[in-house]
Amino acid sequence: xxxxxxxxxxxxxxxxxxxxxxxxxxxxxxxxxxxxxxxxxxxxxxxxxxxxxxxxxxxxxxxxxxxxxxxxxxxxxxxxxxxxxxxxxxxxxxxxxxxxxxxxxxxxxxxxxxxxxxxxxxxxxxxxxxxxxxxxxxxxxxxxxxxxxxxxxxxxxxxxxxxxxxxxxxxxxxxxxxxxxxxxxxxxxxxxxxxxxxxxxxxxxxxxxxxxxxxxxxxxxxxxxxxxxxxxxxxxxxxxxxxxx
Length: 245
Hints:
Layout: E1 5-7, H1 29-37, E2 48-52, H2 56-79, H3 86-93, H4 107-130, H5 136-153, H6 155-163, H7 170-194, H8 200-215, H9 226-242
Antiparallel strand pairs: 1-2
Helix pairs in contact: 1-4, 2-3, 2-4, 2-6, 4-5, 4-6, 4-7, 5-7, 5-9, 7-8, 8-9
């Protein structure tokens, strides 16, 4: 069995060095949750270190929390937050219902953590792309590919992000709204670099409409091959963003 990895966490004040994303006060909740609940997937594993963690118990605890979070996200997708109970989440994660409380304060805490993870994933991807030196069209193309990949790779998470805002805690809603506005502002900046004649309001409208179209794919079980679906969604998203340009 491979040794657990030590997760490199962002500062607990909710900031990231070199980033334009800043959350302070109540809005830092999302980042605090994601840094304590599950390791980053896929390309976000760049945020982990290879050497073994000295506290294997802590590593096991993080893994158990990740299992609970994954199980809850899938159940929230299938049945909705209100129809999912702690016992359901525990059973899906392979532990007793009361055992969930050793890792989370309750069901709403799990939802806050899931949405915090989703918002952090989106922001890390977009800021990595915007931080690289690219031509405006290449930047927009990279953002589109990243968005489509997230939708296809994490359909349950995307569905929860879209459906369950009203069930977040007040602090969770503040964190999600702030992250979403930051994410949207980054896309507006990228689009206007490519299309400077489009004003901010028009750019924002294009992005909302285009993203709504693509994000809805997370709630549709398509029989289309994954690569073909990705290409189709990328073409649709780019077409909607740059229509008339």
